[in-house]
């Protein structure tokens, strides 16, 4: 009889411990979920500021952003969004805030520099190439580098600029086996 009481006591204690654990886990999960929700909200606000605001409004909205490294569902960073919307005025500010993801890849494995080259945005390419640590050798899903994009778009000045920074890209082959 004593043994049965002990087992019952132990089971109740275990159940109680499990309930405490689950309660703590739920709180931690809720906090992480809330953090993710807030990060997504910050990202959406920053994207809207990039897309629709003038520089003063955008910079005032950016003061409240806490999570600069959030990545969208399509793997775009704020840097990708900035280049996509051709916001040369905001690019230096966003680069300063997102240096860790400066070479971040989207769902097509394209960097912000790929976007800038495709947009023929020489000023943006210049800013990005002037940033220490910018990677020129990234291949997208078609195995094309920034140099492939510049050649495909017929951007001679960018071709020379990219080759002067990284001459070995001249020999990079894409998925079809073609060099730039």
How would you portray this structure in words?
The chain has helices at 2-52, 55-62, 78-84, 91-97, 112-118, 122-129, 146-152, 156-165. The termini are far apart. By secondary structure, it is mainly alpha-helical. It contains eight helices and no strands.
Features:
globular, mainly alpha, 180 residues, single chain
How are the SSEs ordered, and which strands pair?
Elements: H1 2-52, H2 55-62, H3 78-84, H4 91-97, H5 112-118, H6 122-129, H7 146-152, H8 156-165
Q: What's this model, at a glance?
A:
The protein is built from eight helices and no strands. With 180 residues, it is mainly alpha-helical.
String of helices and strands:
HHHHHHHH
Shape: globular
Tell me the distance between the termini. Answer: 84 Å
Strand content: under 5%
Please give the count of helices.
Answer: 8
Helix coverage percent: 55-70%
Mean pLDDT: 77
The number of E-state strands comes to 0
Show unreliable segments.
Answer: 5-10
How many whole angstroms does the radius of gyration measure? 24 Å
Class based on secondary structure composition and strand pairing: mainly alpha
Largest sheet: none
């Amino acid at each position: 009889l004593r043994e049965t009481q002990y087992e019952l006591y132990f089971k109740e204690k275990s159940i109680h411990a499990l309930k405490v654990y689950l309660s703590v886990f739920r709180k931690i999960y809720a906090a992480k979920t809330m953090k993710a929700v807030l990060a997504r909200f910050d990202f959406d606000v920053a994207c809207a500021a990039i897309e629709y605001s003038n520089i003063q409004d955008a910079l005032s909205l950016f003061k409240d952003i806490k999570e600069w490294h959030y990545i969208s569902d399509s793997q775009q960073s704020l840097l990708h969004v900035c280049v996509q919307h051709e916001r040369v005025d905001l690019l230096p500010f966003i680069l300063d805030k997102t240096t860790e993801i400066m070479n971040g890849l989207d769902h097509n494995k394209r960097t912000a520099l790929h976007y800038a080259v495709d947009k023929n945005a020489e000023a943006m390419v210049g800013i990005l190439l002037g940033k220490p640590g910018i990677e020129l050798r990234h291949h997208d899903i078609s195995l094309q580098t920034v140099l492939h994009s510049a050649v495909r778009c017929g951007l001679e000045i960018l071709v020379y600029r990219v080759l002067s920074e990284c001459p070995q890209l001249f020999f990079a082959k894409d998925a079809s086996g073609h060099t730039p």
